[in-house]
Amino acid sequence: MAKIALExxxxxxxxxxxxxxxxxxxxxxxxxxxxxxxxxxxxLVWGLVRIHAYFDGxxxxxxxxxxxxxxxxxAKIFTEKRFDELFDYEKNKDAQYLESRxxxxxxxxxxxxxxxxxxxxxxxxxxxxxxxxxTADGKAxxxxxxxxxxxxxxxxxxxxxxxxxxxxxxxxxxxxIDTIHPVTYDYTVxxxxxxxxxxxxxxxxxxxxxxxxxxxxxxxxxxxxxxxxVSYRFNCALGEPDITVTDAQGQSVPLEEVGQDSYRYVFxxxxxxLKPTFENGAVEFVKQWCLYSTHNTKRANxxxxxxxGSNAESFIRNYESTxxxxxxxxxxxxxxxxNYAMLSDKVLTCEVSLTYHTVSKRKENDYxxxxxxxxxxxxxxxxxxDFELLGAQSDDA
Length: 397
Hints:
Number of domains: 3
Strand order of the largest sheet: 8-9-5-12-11
Order of helices and strands: HHHHHEEEEEEEEEEEEHHHEEEE
Radius of gyration: 50 Å
Largest sheet: 5 strands, mixed
CATH architecture of the largest domain: Roll
Number of helices: 8
CATH topology of the largest domain: Nuclear Transport Factor 2, Chain: A
CATH class of the largest domain: Alpha Beta
């Protein structure tokens, strides 16, 4: 008992402090550690993915705007022979062709055939553009250019630091087809004529300039409708076009070439058929007119050959010839007629030339006369209703 009491009386020693974990507590602690580790790894992976995505997007964008890719896209129009797209591309430019899309595609398809189409970059005089040549089996086919847009694509190599990189942005430029050369055609034709190019009748949108009067415009008989000359201008680029000019009856209108790819209406005369019928009457009128001008015949002999109330009658009645001496003798020399034409079914024109030789008071004179007559069928025969002097009269002593 005494031993027990003695031990109890001694001071107690310092106890060791520790935490006793149960199996459940250890599992929870390990799970928290694993979750934290997963979160940190996930954040690291997410960060790396984001960084990779950023740089990958930048590089892809930078790669996509490289001029070589823009050139590839333009070149595919040729290499893949998408000539219908090429037609649309050029139609938006200044070169306007009269040919249709089908004509254009057919022409280039036949031209390219089975040739191997390639393209290569060539030097450009403009530092702000890049130039390329397209060849078909080594032969020049076309050229196209890329042009700087004035913009640049840039990105930060180290985000938030400000160190950047990038490149200039290019856009499709112009296309030049070496085998297509627009040719401008000019056709001056009567306003009643139809100009047809490759099966297409031209409308008024192809007219240029002002209409022109023909030589007889001011000398048409009342009620007779004349016509004017109008000019069509159009462009063709696919070889030699099929061009026809026809009247209302479908007959070909006569033309003459007056310049490079320029044609003009030719007014046709019909001397062969009309001259035998009308020559004597035309010559007789001019002779009577000459005789009246020298007081060698009565005015009535001239007026009976003209239409009453016409310009011809007015001119003859008002002609002043009191200063002219009557011819003692006279003769008509070098008589000829030409340029017969029907202006309508009842109106005729022709030209008469002759030399009126006279002797007055022993003085010889030669009067050169060249007239264009306008004659109409009044129902009672053919009568002159107008005439004009084509060559100035002169006299030789």
